[in-house]
Amino acid sequence: MSQYRTFTADDAVAYAQQFGGLADPAELVRAEEIGDGNLNLVFKIYDRADRSRVVVKQALPYVRCVGESWPLTLDRARLEAQTLVEHYRHCPQHTVNVIHYDAELAVMVMEDLSSHQIWRGELVKNIPYPQAASQLGYYLAQTLFHTSDFYLHPHKKKEEVARFINPQMCEITEDLFFNEPYIGHEHNAYPAQLEEDVLALRHDDELRIAVASLKHRFFAHAEALLHGDIHSGSVFVAENSLKAIDAEFGYFGPIGFDVGTALGNLLLNYCALPGLLAPREAAAGREQRLLDVKVLWLAFVERFQALAVEKTRDVALAFPGYASAFLHKVWQDSVGYCGTELIRRTVGMSQIADMKTISDEAMRVECIRHAISLGKTLILAAPHVEDIDALLARIRQNG
Ligand code: SR1
Ligand code: MG
């Protein structure tokens, strides 16, 4: 019999007192529910001095932003906690620390990150975090290399693939990224003025085949333990610090999916900035975003290469030149998945603050149009974009 019950604020305080790992648990007195994501309850737990000390997160048995008509597995809490624990082992400086989790209650207790801000909100305000792009690239290299066949023994890798089977959460991605934006679907949420642009996606056979190929690789290529949803809303930043959170979509998939999602959210912000800022500031902000894209990719690839030289355990994969050849495929995948993130966040269900914050409607429509067009360009160009400078040139050409 499952012990699951939905937590009240008082339950969250009692739970944090018991499992928060604090030396003074009786000091915890109140909880505030701050969850603003699509799926879960998130409580900040405060002490008597009104300092927030730990976070309690609970999965609901349905999609929060839709309601009980869309049931969703509670097992995602286990998958999230285990993904974060695994990523923390390989990159503690850039992964939130999970203090405790309970699969039955679908709850975990995490370190408090009140000194940090969600990166998306900061990008919308164009507040600079000069280290964030390289830190995110480093996080991706550390976590993805150490959970890949370069590093894990083949038996362990197969055990890990089994431990992280995540069919329901993957299905959400499979539908939201690769199906719904390209068919007429009730989840889609683009402005009516863009009907023709969206219809053009549906009727572009070359694009539909490229998207099918990306989806097929998402189904079939168990390359490493992905975060699975590493957009700018899943990243906390502070001066010189970055922490990934929210890994309930974690599973073994193609490395380029995580890298492309991260790059895609920088480019969504790039497309939105003309609607968010005055022209001169927007132009400077956009240059910074392009630099962030370059820095993130280079930090990822340099760290992954260094790890491959130092720590590859498989004899065949260690052969000089193989890691570079593999990273070229990851590059092409990253560009393609980046394009799908641009389209699913503008045409599809999961709209983002970067666009929603634009108050001038005509401008908002133009920024969204630009993101759709850039997304399409990147999906089609992915197999032909040689390197990061060629990608930046394509982005500039696109407007
Ligand atoms: C129904 S869940 C919609 C989206 O929210 C999550 O944050 C993921 O990005 C997912 O695609
Ligand atoms: Mg999330």
TrEMBL record:
Transmembrane parts of this sequence: none
Q: Which GO terms describe its biological process?
A: L-methionine salvage from methylthioadenosine
Output the Gene Ontology terms for molecular function. Answer: ATP binding; S-methyl-5-thioribose kinase activity
Under Pfam families, the record lists:
APH
Q: Keywords on this record?
A: Amino-acid biosynthesis, ATP-binding, Kinase, Methionine biosynthesis, Nucleotide-binding, Transferase
Question: Which residues of the sequence carry a binding annotation for ATP?
Answer: N40, K57, E111, D112, L113, D246, A247, E248
InterPro entries given in the database record: Aminoglycoside_PTrfase, Kinase-like_dom_sf, Methylthioribose_kinase
The pathway this protein participates in, as annotated, is: Amino-acid biosynthesis; L-methionine biosynthesis via salvage pathway; S-methyl-5-thio-alpha-D-ribose 1-phosphate from S-methyl-5'-thioadenosine (hydrolase route): step 2/2
**Residue ranges occupied by any Aminoglycoside phosphotransferase domain in the UniProt entry:** 32-278
Residues given in the record as substrate binding sites:
D229, R344
So what EC number does this one have?
A: 2.7.1.100
Catalytic reaction list: 5-(methylsulfanyl)-D-ribose + ATP = 5-(methylsulfanyl)-alpha-D-ribose 1-phosphate + ADP + H(+)
Q: What protein family is recorded?
A: Belongs to the methylthioribose kinase family.
Q: Could you tell me what this protein does?
A: Catalyzes the phosphorylation of methylthioribose into methylthioribose-1-phosphate.
Q: What is this protein called?
A: Methylthioribose kinase
